What we know:
alpha+beta
Amino acid sequence: MPDETDRLSRIISLLTVCRKAGRLVLGFDAVTEAAGKHRAACILLAADCAARTEKEIRFRCRDSAIRKLPADMEQLGMYFRKRTAVFGVCDPGFAGRLLTLLPEEQPCSECQVSAGSPAEDAGNAASQPQ
């Protein structure tokens, strides 16, 4: 397996080619919209993505493969000229290659998706006695 710097450069290269091909969407709203229309083949999160953002993405986009990138928002912002934590790949070929470079990992304990929506979870928590 290639070392981390080589792996990161391969990932960034694939993402830049994907963006030039018009098959990469950036930002939470654009990615959730693409996932809702079943266009996002995979969703990538920056390493320093907020736990709440990750939880929302895992809930709203549970039909898409979701991986964490080995780079933070600042590093990714240098390449894409936009500081964002959420990337959507809308091409199955690019997505497949990226998924082979990014190992699957378990979401953080705060990011576990429950059966209800986040609004329902908040309502259930408020109605329970303390």
